[in-house]
Design goal:
12 helices, seven-stranded mixed beta sheet, 9 strands, alpha/beta, disordered N terminus, two-stranded antiparallel ribbon, single chain
Length: 301
């Protein structure tokens, strides 16, 4: 990072009025935090740092060693621009193009959902049931974070599907980024899928349509509605997956689904009524329903 003085006209008014002398990394970080707090950004301090880390390409240790030195002029312009967009509730992950999931860095953009920590439970439950050599299908793969994390952790092969071609382009970027082998199919769930699998994963759209307007602006205004909207009751895609998966799962194969916080009972009944056994609803750290699993009848115990 080049450390040079920032031209006066680009400096925030409140800093100029205070004398304009302190144009340090620390002053900019403090400014970023206050700017985002004033715009009701919940994690203002964290986001202000993440944006500074991104534009200036610095680490925390570098910051603490150089916090009283002036910030690079070009970095400052970029920082102000990103602060403005974050203040408009654009998610910080879309601004930096990166999200961390299951210990891995994933590329993200407005065509895919931002990977969330709760979804890591789906990966964990899949890995508990996975066996070497399995063939895994991931429906509604989005960024590919679920499938690619499984492939990084287990000796299995995998295919991901998504109805969005733009999402699959992101998934392919992440496949290359993580250095694993995976195939992608543009498909409305099983529409263009062939063959059978020992495990099917999915984090499908599951938010009821009338709830979407109530979501945080970061979600409702910026994340793809196509990946959120589970139709009238949020269960539309589960009905299709649970029913159609029986034609693609090997006997005894596992179906593992992320679900909404209050959908456990509905999914348990749905899976059992369609002939799945060993049905289990797993809760997240907050105690909410998060993952539903079941094995297709015929599993050898």
């Amino acid at each position: 990072m080049r450390l040079v003085q920032v031209r006066e006209q680009r400096f925030p008014e409140w800093m100029r009025s205070a004398g304009g002398a302190d144009r340090s990394l620390k002053a900019w970080l403090d400014y970023g935090t206050e700017y985002l707090q004033a715009r009701q950004i919940a994690d203002a301090k964290t986001d202000a740092w993440l944006l500074m880390e991104y534009v200036a390409n610095i680490t925390r240790s570098f910051y603490y060693m150089h916090m009283h030195e002036p910030m690079d002029e070009n970095d400052t312009e970029d920082y102000l621009g990103l602060l403005k967009r974050r203040g408009e509730h654009v998610p910080v992950q879309y601004l930096t193009g990166e999200a961390w999931f299951y210990g891995y860095s994933f590329r993200v953009n407005q065509h895919v959902l931002i990977p969330r920590q709760d979804t890591e439970i789906l990966v964990e439950e899949a890995l508990k049931r996975i066996e070497p050599g399995m063939r895994v299908l991931d429906l509604c793969t989005g960024s590919g974070c679920v499938l690619l994390s499984v492939l990084k952790e287990a000796s299995v092969s995998g295919v991901g599907t998504d109805i969005s071609q733009e999402a699959l382009l992101v998934a392919e970027l992440n496949r290359k980024r993580l250095g694993v082998h995976a195939g992608w199919i543009e498909s409305d769930l099983f529409e263009n899928v062939g063959g059978t699998f020992q495990m099917i994963l999915s984090n499908p759209p599951y938010i009821p349509s009338d709830v979407i307007p109530e979501l945080d602006p970061e979600v409702r205004e910026h994340e793809p509605v196509l990946a959120l909207d589970g139709r009238e009751d949020g269960l539309y895609f589960y009905r299709r997956i649970v029913d159609e998966a029986r034609s693609y799962l090997c006997p005894g194969g596992w179906l593992c689904l992320e679900i909404g916080y209050d959908q456990g009972e509905a999914l348990e009944n749905m899976l059992k009524s369609h002939g799945y056994t060993e049905v289990k609803i797993i809760k997240d750290l907050a105690g909410n329903d998060r993952v539903a699993v079941g094995a297709l009848s015929g599993r050898e115990l």
